[in-house]
């Protein structure tokens, strides 16, 4: 399976194409739209989310609600485009009198300056329109399609926010996807610790008032993942590496670890490796999960535990020093309407790209033409592993 996304933030729409997806999966469009709506929520988001009402439209690869095995095309309209029609018109040159809202003072931490240098743009809007995380709406839609495939195999996953700025909002216990879903539905921060909600709201409000922004830490947990997805045989077949690349491919993600991550480095091996057990009813399992479900680039049957660091939002309402790309005049960086923190939607975006990589690994391992055949092969494989 491969996928592409296209579309500018204030252009007419986002497009996604998935190729190599099996025939015979009944898609729930309500579920896709629910995930898109969830991605728009979260305390600390900017005004743009009041304008958009993300809904997916499917124009190929699905008939009467069931996938056909042919390329699936997904579309999400940018409602805000109506305010940017002439500025973002894909074809017609603009009226010379209109304000094109050109961007000349690159924002530190955004793609503006280097994107302009590399592609030779003299209006940095040509960079920011595509480097914007607006595109992540489409990755969430594609991830929701993949999560529906995984759910047919009883593989579940969920993401939540562990930390916002300096505030730790995690619990000591490792929660499984169903518990995470239950807990995060109770607040607008996708955190599992309800006691921290008030303090975090206040913290985000204060940060906004100060013209500043926040990042944080996210965790995604996947359960019921069979052993043997990915491969140790070549570096580019390792599934933990593919997941790491997909996660860092999301705007503003700066670190990814598996299991106990950096904490593993200082410990002796005896406290890190997960002891091996076998029992007739359960098959193979481990008594701990410090390695987060991966050995040799392969899933080992334990839950996958993926932790991600997101940097603070680069656009600052109290901007940092910058220089005009035309006059070289020194001034403050440009300000574009912006989020104070996007850690909440980011947790769903990360969950989505992990779902995509897991679905790709499943389709690389088993029949990828037909869903029923895939399920039969998958069940036989799981039974075989249990008695290995
Ligand atoms: C869901 C989401 C929303 C974001 N919203 C904003 C925003 O409103 N303003 C902004 O400057 N950056 C925002 N970002 C981050 C930038 O898109 C990102 O930092 C920028 O494209 C540079 O890429 P890099 O941080 O990966 O180097 C957001 C990121 C995510 C995941
Ligand atoms: C549009 C979305 O996020 C955008 C991501 C973003 C950025 O620079 O990454 C900048 C802002 O864009 P705008 O200036 O249009 O408000 C965010 O709103 C979205 O998530 O749907």
Automatic annotation (TrEMBL):
Assembly mode: Homotetramer.
Keyword DNA repair carried by entry: no
Keywords attached to this entry: Amino-acid biosynthesis, Aromatic amino acid biosynthesis, FAD, Flavoprotein, FMN, Lyase, NADP
InterPro entries, per the entry: Chorismate_synth, Chorismate_synth_AroC_sf, Chorismate_synthase_CS
EC number: 4.2.3.5
Organism: Sporolactobacillus spathodeae
Protein encoded by which gene: aroC
Function: This reaction introduces a second double bond into the aromatic ring system.
Protein name (Swiss-Prot/TrEMBL): Chorismate synthase
């Amino acid at each position: 399976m491969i996928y592409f996304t296209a579309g500018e933030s204030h252009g007419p729409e986002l497009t996604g194409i998935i190729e190599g997806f099996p025939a015979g999966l009944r898609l729930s469009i309500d579920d896709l739209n629910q995930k898109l709506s969830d991605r728009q929520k979260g305390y600390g988001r900017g005004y743009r989310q009041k304008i958009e009402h993300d809904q997916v439209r499917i124009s190929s690869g699905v008939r009467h609600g069931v996938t056909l095995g042919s390329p699936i095309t997904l579309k999400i309209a940018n409602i805000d485009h109506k305010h940017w029609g002439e500025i973002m018109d894909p074809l017609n040159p603009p009226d010379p009198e209109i304000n094109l809202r050109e961007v000349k003072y690159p924002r530190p931490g955004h793609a503006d300056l280097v994107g302009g240098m590399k592609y030779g743009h003299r209006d940095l809007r040509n960079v920011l329109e595509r480097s914007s995380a607006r595109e992540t709406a489409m990755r969430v839609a594609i991830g929701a399609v993949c999560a529906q495939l995984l759910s047919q195999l009883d593989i579940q996953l969920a993401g939540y926010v562990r930390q916002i700025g300096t505030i730790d909002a995690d619990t000591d216990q490792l929660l499984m996807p169903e518990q995470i879903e239950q807990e995060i539905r109770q607040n607008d921060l996708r955190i599992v610790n309800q006691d921290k909600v008030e303090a975090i709201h206040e913290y985000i409000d204060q940060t906004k008032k100060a013209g500043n922004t926040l990042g944080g830490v996210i965790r995604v947990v996947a359960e019921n993942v069979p052993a043997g997805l990915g491969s140790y045989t070549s570096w580019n077949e390792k599934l933990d590496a593919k997941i790491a690349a997909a996660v860092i491919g999301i705007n503003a993600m700066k670190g990814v670890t598996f299991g106990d991550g950096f904490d593993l480095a200082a410990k002796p091996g005896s406290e890190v490796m997960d002891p091996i057990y076998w029992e007739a009813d359960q098959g193979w399992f481990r008594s701990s999960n410090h390695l987060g479900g991966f050995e040799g680039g392969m899933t080992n049957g334990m839950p996958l535990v993926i932790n991600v660091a997101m940097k603070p939002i680069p656009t600052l309402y109290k901007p940092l020093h910058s220089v005009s790309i035309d006059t070289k005049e020194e001034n403050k960086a440009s300000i574009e309407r912006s989020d104070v923190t996007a850690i909440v939607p980011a947790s769903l975006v990360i969950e989505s790209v992990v779902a995509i990589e897991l679905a790709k690994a499943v389709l690389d391992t088993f029949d990828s033409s037909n869903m029923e055949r895939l399920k039969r092969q998958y069940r036989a494989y799981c039974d075989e592993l249990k008695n290995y």
